[in-house]
């Protein structure tokens, strides 16, 4: 199958930091279909060879284990091409169409690695140039919109040019091998399904934490914040995969239909419940890994007095028969104690304990990063003396050891799926809009508080696990975050 893959924003950070290295790994692994071309478009004037040199130099900044040798890069570089384009000029789109039509590839993938506010204008120009034929797909990088209205406008324009099955809305978390294992855990094994419900599960916690700060991206991050950057997309996608009903098939729409049902079942927020069930914070100066680090408002390009949240913790419920009454806790933040992404399923304690200490409940920890694996926490007899006391033990499965061959990275998997036309790991427009619809009352409440002169996010020391109010949020129900258990 011949393909042409076009990157709009071909000299931008996303392209050279993430997408090109992912494509090279697919090429190295022999996964990239033969007969492909990769075209980068941007405003700069460059030749193909100059662009190849640009990418080769940038590859020195990626993980050394994934860095190509000179011979490997020379072979990969044969696929790379460059074309100057002004994205506001119709004649440049006509020129791109001519370049693509001259060969007539079986599949064309147009990847919009640009600022999302350009998506509508680019899609309209693509439609006007006839670059929306059935064999053409468009990939839209997150964030898709800044709120519900902007997301709906982007989707309206995209749908006016492309059919839904041609639009690939990317959330790179869905491409992680660990997230694929989450699907396998739930729907490839019979072990947990009888327990996967309110009668057996006390609560579920999703944590997406980072030890890094905002770095040099302070201006971008201050317009975005943790709720938009992590909760509206990554955290909610993980929640849907944990809570969804088994789909009838592995077909993309069967899976996405079930995810949408979960989003529609989430308990809606009111101004009162936002104040009660949502905690936002902003990191102050502290220490991470033994190194002193500045507070958020001392970071480069962050405006003084910013109310941008770098931490969010919230409590919600899925209001259906399977999950009624089970709290779901979501937590994400920057400059926290560790880089961690995990889902903790806390089971209910045994109904009548007969052993001392048996009140400690079992839990399943699904580790997404930096490790990729499963931990099942149980209680067992110590086997020493005559004591009947039980001790906690865990069954630990490390997927990297279980599958020692190099595993496919998130962007590598998603790029290959886009070329192949597999939509399973991409977000449908109604899913995306429903996620915005659910978080919008939180954004509105914060906006009203800002206008009324409210105090804004709670401060927390860099290197901690966030504001004390986040622990109180869980403790109110008689539970604790995983690291506090």
Automatic annotation (TrEMBL):
It catalyses: D-glucose 6-phosphate + NADP(+) = 6-phospho-D-glucono-1,5-lactone + NADPH + H(+). NADP(+) binds at residues 43, 86-87, 142. The keyword NADP applies. GO terms for cellular component: cytosol. Substrate binds at residues 172, 176, 210, 229, 334. Pathway: Carbohydrate degradation; pentose phosphate pathway; D-ribulose 5-phosphate from D-glucose 6-phosphate (oxidative stage): step 1/3. InterPro entries: G6P_DH, G6P_DH_C, G6P_DH_NAD-bd, NAD(P)-bd_dom_sf. Pfam families: G6PD_C, G6PD_N. Residues 183-481 form the Glucose-6-phosphate dehydrogenase C-terminal domain. Keywords: Carbohydrate metabolism, Glucose metabolism, NADP, Oxidoreductase. Belongs to the glucose-6-phosphate dehydrogenase family. NCBIfam families: PRK12853.1-3, zwf. This is Glucose-6-phosphate 1-dehydrogenase.
């Amino acid at each position: 199958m011949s393909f042409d893959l076009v990157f709009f924003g071909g000299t931008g950070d996303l392209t050279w930091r993430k997408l090109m290295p992912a494509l090279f790994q697919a090429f190295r692994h022999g996964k990239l279909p033969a007969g492909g071309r990769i075209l980068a478009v941007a405003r700069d004037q460059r030749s193909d060879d100059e662009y190849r040199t640009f990418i080769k130099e940038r590859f020195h900044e990626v993980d050394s284990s994934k860095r190509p040798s000179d011979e490997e890069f020379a072979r990969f570089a044969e696929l790379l091409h460059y074309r100057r384009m002004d994205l506001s000029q119709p004649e440049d789109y006509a020129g791109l169409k001519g370049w693509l039509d001259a060969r007539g590839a079986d599949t064309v993938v147009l990847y919009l690695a640009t600022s999302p506010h350009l998506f509508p204008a680019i899609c309209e120009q693509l439609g006007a140039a006839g670059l929306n034929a059935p064999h053409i797909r468009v990939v839209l990088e997150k964030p898709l919109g800044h709120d519900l209205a902007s997301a709906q406008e982007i989707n309206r324009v995209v749908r006016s040019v492309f059919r839904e099955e041609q639009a690939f809305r990317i959330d790179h978390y869905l491409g992680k091998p660990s997230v694929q294992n989450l699907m396998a855990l739930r729907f490839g094994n019979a072990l947990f399904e009888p327990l996967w419900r309110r009668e057996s599960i006390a609560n579920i916690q999703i944590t997406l934490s980072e030890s890094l700060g905002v770095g040099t991206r302070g201006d971008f991050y201050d317009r975005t914040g943790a709720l938009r950057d992590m909760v509206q997309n990554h955290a909610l996608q993980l929640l849907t995969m944990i809570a969804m009903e088994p789909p009838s098939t592995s077909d993309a729409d069967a899976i996405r239909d079930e995810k949408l049902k979960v989003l529609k079942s989430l308990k809606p927020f009111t101004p009162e419940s936002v104040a009660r069930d949502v905690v936002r914070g902003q990191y102050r100066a502290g220490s991470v890994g033994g190194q002193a680090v500045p507070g958020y408002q001392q970071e480069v390009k962050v405006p003084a007095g910013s109310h941008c949240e770098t931490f969010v913790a919230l409590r919600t419920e899925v209001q259906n028969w399977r999950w009624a009454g089970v709290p779901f806790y979501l937590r994400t933040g920057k400059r926290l104690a560790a880089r961690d992404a995990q889902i903790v399923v806390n089971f209910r304690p045994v109904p009548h304990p007969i052993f001392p200490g048996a009140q400690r409940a079992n839990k399943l920890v699904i580790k997404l990063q930096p490790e990729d694996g499963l931990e099942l926490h149980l209680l067992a007899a110590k086997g020493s003396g005559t004591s009947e006391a039980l001790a906690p033990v865990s069954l630990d499965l490390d997927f990297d050891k279980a599958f020692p061959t190099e595993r496919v990275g998130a962007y590598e998997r998603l790029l290959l799926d886009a070329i192949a036309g597999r939509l399973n790991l991409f977000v449908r427009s109604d899913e995306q809009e429903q996620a915005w619809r659910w978080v919008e009352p939180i954004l509105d409440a914060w906006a009203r508080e800002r206008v009324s002169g409210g105090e804004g996010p709670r401060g927390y020391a860099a290197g901690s696990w966030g504001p004390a109010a986040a622990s109180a949020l869980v403790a109110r129900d008689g539970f604790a975050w995983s690291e506090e258990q």
